Amino acid sequence: MSRSGYTLPVFACAAAVAALHWLHDRQPLTLASVDLIEPSQIAEIPIEQVAGLSENTALAIARSDPGDNLDLTRNTPIWAMVEWREEGEEAVIIQGGEGIGRQMNADDKPAIYAYARRLLQENLQRMLAPGEKITVTIILPEGRSLAVRTSNSAFGVVEGLSLLGTTGISQPLSTPDQLAAFRAELQNKASRFESLVFCIGENGLDLARKLGINPEQLVKTANWLGPMLVEADVLGVKEILLFGYHGKLMKLAGGIFHTHHHLADGRREILAAHCAIAGLKSPDIQTVFHSPTAEAALAHLRSLDASTGSDWVNQVYSAIAETIDARSQEYIQSHSESGTEVTVCGSMLFDRDRKIIVKSKTARLLMGKLC
Questions:
Q1: So what does this thing catalyse (predicted)?
Q2: pLDDT bucket at 45, cuts 50 / 70 / 90
Q3: Are 313 and 332 in contact (CB under 8 A)?
Q4: Per-residue b/e over 136-165, b at no fewer than 16 CB within 10 Å?
Q5: Rounded CA gap, 220 and 231, in Å?
């Protein structure tokens, strides 16, 4: 049985709790209690070190433990510096220090997302007396070097890691028991809704919420899209919106329904084939095919559109989205034993700046119902 752990925001919060405790009591905590909020339970997080930096400032260090998840932040130290302040209306101000990434598409704001902010705000405000105000700075000393090994830059996060997540529990994403956990969530939501949204990762979940989709209709799939589509059909789900980063989701257009890059990666072939069918000239097809990433290929198509007034992005990606829909229907049909009408699929793809590139015809209809 795989061991679950906690997500990065939990350790950041634990360090902040320990630092604030020191400011109040001048005593170091060895364990910090954190209310995870999602789910509703208390986690006891070991604190490695606590130090007072001045009368008004303290620093505490926790260390990431994601359980058996394949997570490169394992054992990385997370620092939280908490400082008393006199001015301002907010009781708790949260800042990103060294190693916390910046969001290029959001005015360089620190990459500290909604769940992390809520976790810090709620846990720390409970510890403050009326009128007390603090500034919290989260620091990941190894964040900048670790970020080079992630896909964060593909989502516009640079110079560090993001405090991203929608829950405090970190589950192993590539193990069969994680698939069982995803299926359990799907079964729960399928019993309440006929239309669901499948998101591969946290970026999709976060963006879907911002678009106004009911969070209760969002289902995380990680790379298990094939099994989850079949399960949804068995459970009688009528409609599924496939919502994801184009570099992942386009794999479905090539019939690849387990999207982990270690298993299969036909992105450049899929893009180049759709470019050829759309009538793109051979030198440009070559450029697309030899692009190092899907994002670079998209950038080339966008530059062609900008310089020639063409519509290649829309033509190529509309075709890919329609192919994703068709291949998904075929996949479900091939695994369906009922012989009755199968789940309808629509697809919606976004880019590194989390901007929507395309919605298939079915996706447009589904969005009308979901928002």
A1: Co-precorrin-5B + S-adenosyl-L-methionine = Co-precorrin-6A + S-adenosyl-L-homocysteine
A2: very high
A3: no
A4: bbbbbebbbebbeebbbbbbbbebbbbbbb
A5: 13
